[in-house]
Amino acid sequence: MNDIIAYFSTIPSSHRSLILVGGITIFWLIENTFPLFQMEYKKWHHAGINFFLTFTTIIVNFVLAFILIKTAGWTTENHFGILQWIPEIPIWLYTIIGLLLLDLIGAYLAHFVQHKIKFLWRFHIIHHTDTWIDTTTANRHHPGESVIRFLFTTAGVLIVGSPMWMVFLYQSLSVVASQFNHANISLPDKLDVILSYFIVSPNMHKVHHHYVLPYTDSNYGNIFSVWDRIFGTFTSLRKEELIYGVDTHMLPEEHNKLKNLLQIPFQKSKSIKNTQNH
C-alpha cells in the first residue's frame, strides 16, 4: 500500500496519459474481438469526434489542475474534511473510504445533478447523444461539462479532505472504470451481474444510455455501484432491448457532427418525447 501511495504522490503526467491511452487501446481491442453488439458505423469517424472531446477535457483539467492541487494541500495542512476527522485507521481502509466518498461526490452526485438541473443537462446531453456506445464514449464530454465535473471533483476533495495522492489514484481508477463500463464488450451475464454488486459493470451502465426515461435517469455510478443501490437509482434492462442515444437527438446530423454537438447547449432545448415506452 505504501508503494501505491508513493507512486501516486509523484505520478508523472506522462504516466497519467499512458493510463488514458492504454485503457482505450486495450478495451478497443477487446470490444473488436468480443463485441456486445455488431454496430454498423464509421468507427474512426465516431472515435475522432470522441477523441476531440477527450482532448478538450484534458485541456480543461490541465488548466484548472492548480485549483485541485491547492485544495488537496489546504485540506491536509488544515486537517479539514471527513478523512482528517476520523480516528486513525488502517491505510487500506482509509483509502477505500476516501475513494468511495470521492466517487459519491465527484461522480455519482455530479452525474445525478446534471440530469436534474436543466442548464447542466444542456451540456451533459452531448454524452447521451452517442448512438454507438463504445470505449471512446467514456470521455465524450462537452468542454462545459468538463468544467462542471471538475468543480464537483474539487468540492469532493474539499469535503472528503483527501490528499493529492488519493486524488490521482481516484482519477486513474475513474478513467479506466469509465472506459470499461462504456466498452462494447460482451461479458457472460452472470459475471456482469456479480460485478454489478461491487463496481459499475458494462451492462449496468449501458442501461443508463437507453434512449428514453426512466432508464436514462438511472445507474449514475462510475466506479462503485453501491451508491445507485443505496439511493434507489439502480435499474436493469435486458441488453436485447437497448437502444442507444437520447430521444431528442436521434438524427445523425444532431449527434454525429462535432460542430452541432458543441452548439447543443446553446440551442433551443427540446422536450423529451417519450418517457416510458421503449
Helical fraction equals 55-70%
- Beta percentage is under 5%
Total DSSP helices: 13
- Provide the number of structural domains: 1
Order of helices and strands: HHHHHHHHHHHHH
Structural class: mainly alpha
- Shape descriptor: globular
- Rg calculated over all Cα atoms: 18 Å
Topology:
Layout: H1 2-9, H2 13-33, H3 43-77, H4 82-85, H5 91-116, H6 118-128, H7 143-160, H8 164-182, H9 189-195, H10 202-208, H11 226-230, H12 252-255, H13 258-263
Describe the model.
It is a single chain. This protein has 278 residues and is mainly alpha-helical. It has one domain. The chain is 62% helix and 0% strand. The chain has 13 helices and no strands. α3 (43-77) runs parallel beside α7 (143-160), α5 packs across α7 (143-160) and α5 (91-116) crosses α8. The radius of gyration is 18 Å and the shape is globular. The relative contact order is 0.15. Residues 273-278 have low confidence and may be disordered.
List keywords for this structure.
disordered C terminus, single chain, mainly alpha, 278 residues
State the gist of this model.
The chain has 278 residues and is mostly helical. The chain has 13 helices and no strands. Helices cover 62% and strands 0% of the residues.
